[in-house]
Amino acid sequence: MNISDFIKEKRKQLNLTQPELAERAGVGLRFIRELEQGKQSVRLDKVNQVLALFGSEIGVIKKDSPTF
Amino acid sequence: MNISDFIKEKRKQLNLTQPELAERAGVGLRFIRELEQGKQSVRLDKVNQVLALFGSEIGVIKKDSPTF
DNA sequence: TATATTTGTACCTTAAAGGGTATAAATATG
DNA sequence: CATATTTATACCCTTTAAGGTACAAATATA
């Protein structure tokens, strides 16, 4: 599970739209969209802002370890 | 263990200087420095470029989970 | 299937990340 | 303690992430 899919999935679980998630996370709508579409060159702090809503965050893992 | 410390530690283990790590990872020297100093607003893909040298990568974890 | 909602794409602007280089500070080594 | 090596800071420049808005495409709903 990659970050993009994780976020999309968690958002769905909470029945939030992209604008709602952006609002709550305090990031721009476009950021959420690009993030969910797998953009790699995103800022770490912004990603963590979003993940914080789900009780998770970015961390270092071994390659091929299951995330979360 | 946060990302900054993890990278600094791994680099030391391999007896690399910051310029050497930057060279190998294909990122700028300044990026390595800011990264090791805990800068949050770094690009995810660049971080992964560095972590790849250590056989690790960025992933989503639960808050307060031990990383790596 | 028609309509409403949600998501994705495109354009523009602004702020700042990333890079190079030079130099100062800190650390290691003899 | 003196010197060499490594790391941190400061400067400038270029690139681009992020945000806003508008519109198109896709998906859900009636």
What does this structure look like?
The structure is a homodimer of 68-residue chains. With 68 residues, the first copy, chain A, is mainly alpha-helical. Chain A has a single domain (3-54), classed as 434 Repressor (Amino-terminal Domain). Helices cover 51% and strands 10% of the residues of chain A. Chain A has 4 helices and 1 strand, in the order H-H-H-H-E. Chain A has helices spanning 3-13, 18-25, 29-36, 44-51; one strand at residues 56-62. The relative contact order of chain A is 0.20. The mean pLDDT of chain A is 96. Strand 1 (56-62) of chain A pairs antiparallel with strand 1 of chain B.
Which key terms come to mind for this protein?
68 residues, 434 Repressor (Amino-terminal Domain), homodimer, 10% strand, DNA-binding
